Amino acid sequence: MLRSPATRRLTVLLAAACLAGCSQAPTRKAENPSDTTNYPETYTSWAKLNDAPIFLESEKTARNLYVNSTALANAGGDGSAFPIGSVLVKEERFLEANPQGRLKVGDVYRVSVMFKVGRGETSGWAFKAFDPQTRKEFPRDRVDPDGCYFCHADASARDYVFTRVR
Question: Using CA atoms, how far apart are residues 164 and 166, in angstroms rounded to an integer?
């Protein structure tokens, strides 16, 4: 099937928007200050969803995924909504080549947080990303929570969470 140039351009633009994900555009704030969360200081003590880092070699990154105990209350994976107060963390690390050329997991460069606030324009979820050294939220020109939401919309049947909580 042949597509018109306009359709091809739209397809490319949509693909680019999806790839941009949580990287660079204005942020959408939660409805009020009580809908925010700070840096999750203890996230590494939470339940870890992956047995080993998830390698994304094309991006030269790796991830670890964590959930708090509130999110574990939905561990059935049946697609039901996560309870308010659920917090999911994506710890993002650089991949580095060792002297033999093999990739190894390096330093954390971003801690992305998805938390259930129960209402708002993003189906009850809010998104933030933090600098792991300063523990401060990245500025608007470094993170796009709207992009996070639109990417997670692909998992709407599982309350916007890609990974099954077990």
Answer: 6
